[in-house]
Amino acid sequence: MASNAVRAQVAAKWQESFARINRAEPGISGLMSFSHAWSLATAFLKPYDLNDPTPRPRHDMRQVREAFDIINKCRRLPVMLEVFLEDLHKSQHLIAREVEDYMNLYESNSDPETVKALIFRLAEWYSAWKPNAELGQTITSAYTLAFQTHLFSILPASFARGVKALVAATLVRTVSQPSDQQDRPLWQAFDTLSLIERYETLIASVGYEYIEVYVLQTCAGSWEEPMLANLRTWMINKIVPWMVWPFARGATNADEAKTMMQGVGSRFDFHMHKTLCDLRTCEIFDIIVDFPDSSGALQDLKECLQRVDQRAELAQSIRQANKKRLLHPGADTKDILLSYVSTIKCLRIVDPPGVLLFKVADPIRRYLRDRPDAIRCIVASLVGDGESGDSLVDDSEPIQPLQQPEIENYADPEWTPEPIDAGPDFRASKTSDIISTIVSIYDSKDLFIKELQVLLAQRLLAIKDGNFDRERRNIEILKIRFGESALQVCEVMLRDMTDSRRIDQHVQSQQSSVIHPTIISRHFWPALETSSIVMPGQFQDMQEQYAKEFTTFKPDKTLRWLPHLGRVQLELEFDDRTVSADVPPLEAAFIELFSEKDTWTVDELASRVGTVSRSAALKSLATWVDIRVLKEDGEHVFKLLSVAEEAIPGTKTAIKQATDELPPVMSVQQQQAEQMKVYWKFIEGMLTNLGSLPLDRIQTMLRLAPGYDRTIEQLGSFMEAAKREGLATVKDGMWRLGK
Amino acid sequence: MDQITSSLAPSRTAQKSTAPGSTTDGPGSVTKRLSSELMSLMMSSSPGISAFPKNDSHLFEWAGTIEGASGTIYAGLTFRISISFPSNYPYTAPAIKFDTPCYHPNVDIHSGAICLDILQDKWSAVYSVQTVLLSLQSLLGEPNNASPLNADAARLWSDPEAYKTQLMKHYRPLDNSS
């Protein structure tokens, strides 16, 4: 049983509620008017089915407003909002049904237009149910939230796909016709339903993809001109008008729009740079090959790299491409060098401090160092070997002395620290010219000088007309590069050539001779191939006479003949004809012997001229057979044709007259092989006396051998070669002599 | 007729001068002498004798190998010796001893010490490692029985078979892996 107090409390509550709703109206008229207002307001707000054909009752907005006023005065608005949301919740199945219908259709036809229709329809629902704005912000936002929450919960995954397709379609339309306003209603519907916020990343991805495709289409493979400026204009003219729709909604003027789009705009801009950067990174090898026709692409790349930090990827890409396409046995050394030079030039544009270049160049340099013909190739291009066409050196570049790697001068006010991504052994090479860079592949320039001497020897000995101007010019140029002292030997070689001429003139004036020797100072010339042929008959006499004259002229010097080198001009008189020929000495020696008797065997001939290999002898005899002075009469028997004979067709000797070969100067490689023979003696000595030794110990012990300069890798491969020949064996890393 | 000749220039080995500081580890003339002796020994290829420094930084201690000359009782045997050069070499003879036990009238079987005139009072600076090694090789076949270090061996020399038995009893073949 309720106590009085409780009863009193309930009564007080009742009185309070009654007073609130009745608003001090007389009797219960207040209650009546509230009841009327309530039913009017709820009926006004109640969500209805758009598909219901019965016409909606028209509400008098004045009455509705009054009704809301009453409810508000009774402080009943929150309750009414709850009732409204409850009603909304009950009606949501209407929307769900339609969404399902549309999406089923979309899934079967994949037409973005279906999605578009759905979006318009949803917007229709939304505005149909939306409480009047005059009812205040609270109710509208509560409604919007409830509506969207429900909507997003029922939209299937395929809707996102549809939206994307739809947005992409609008982008294409806007790009082709920036002033087109056709999509305005769609964007407004998007906005109404807050789909833009929800699908912002999706919309942005449409933009990204579009930019990506466009960049790839326009820029792939076109490297002549910088593309970035065009791309930027394109972005401003084509993409920005579209961006205004989703990303600058409700902007009233251009400045406002600019501020709103700043974030997404810079993301798009970044994406454009990144796409171009990626593209150029992939293409970099071909860009380098195409240089200088690809300087535009390199400018772009440089700008992109400042925006997008992809330097490591670029270096990686070049290294990989080089490894796959350049640094293998199939590539010509000349091409590798050219490509290296191109790489240097290209990366200087992209990255002036040279960090990238240093990272990229290292494998190329290491590879070139292992290529045996690289030095010769470099030297040949240094002296401008015209025959090979494009030279490594740009003629317009000023000739400058080789630069030695300098020690950093910290006192220099211009000094800057190394770039941040420089490796530990990075050496700034900003000032080096191309030739210095190439020469620095090798640890010392001595190798170049040696190779240069060999090359010069070959070229000097090949000159027949006595015109050494070209070589003199080359040497003068090289002097600037390598320094005077390094080229002293070359200088002597050159002087030998002119001195020979002078000495010859003098000797001829004393006693004329048909011999015009080139006299070279052995000490300064690279090793020439030796041969022990002895000229028979008149040639020998001429040589001796000449040597005697020479000794009188230069008593402190002795001539040592290299009779196998040079050329002999002969005139052969036969019974019926005269044959003149310009042949190597061995040929001359043989034909002279034929004046003794008409038929010789090869072995007889060979024995008369000292030691000569059978194949060389046959080759020289073939020269004479070719010009029908001799004929082969049985196997390896040759007969002089005193009377010309017509060659029997089909029996013509296959061997052609020897063309002008380069004089047989020993190449640096051959010289090295010679040296290695000496070192083998030392290895033999140490292995005999010290037992078996590990490779590194052999390497250190070889320091005892004069001039030993091989690396342990070279020694290792040399020992492997010795092992293959059975000269040495190895067990557990210990080398010993083979039995 | 063009002929290529050469004036008589210094031999190729003289070009060493272009590779500075090639072998020596110090400026000492002894080291220089020793490395040039090494070079000529390596290039001489005399059969059956060989020697090499034990260490690349210290040229004064060498190991050598002597094979008994064919036709002598020592044929087919190989002896390891050690050579120690004094600091005033070549004015003083190098100290040489056998590491492999050598049964020989002029060699101490235990210490390996050698009694050879050119290693003692007859030493001259014109001798070299190579000449010393050659002398030792010939000493094996032709001992000087007048001043024996090993009296046993000197006595047995006239009896080749007994001598060979004694020789083989003491001989140990080289262990190359040591």
From TrEMBL, chain A:
One of its GO terms (biological process) is protein K11-linked ubiquitination. GO terms for molecular function: ubiquitin protein ligase binding. The keyword Cell cycle applies. Keywords: Cell cycle, Cell division, Mitosis, Ubl conjugation pathway. It comes from the Eukaryota. GO terms for cellular component: anaphase-promoting complex. Residues 402-610 form the Cullin family profile domain. SUPFAM superfamilies: Cullin homology domain, Winged helix' DNA-binding domain. Transmembrane segments: none annotated. SMART domains: APC2, CULLIN. Belongs to the cullin family. This is Anaphase-promoting complex subunit 2. It comes from Boletus edulis BED1.
UniProtKB/TrEMBL annotation, chain B:
Residues 29-176 form the UBC core domain. Pfam families: UQ_con. Residues 1-26 have a biased composition (Polar residues). CDD domains: UBCc_UBE2C. The keyword Ribonucleoprotein does not apply. Signal peptide: none annotated. The active site is at C115. PANTHER family: UBIQUITIN-CONJUGATING ENZYME E2. Belongs to the ubiquitin-conjugating enzyme family. This is Ubiquitin-conjugating enzyme/RWD-like protein. The lineage of its organism: Eukaryota, Fungi, Dikarya, Basidiomycota, Agaricomycotina.
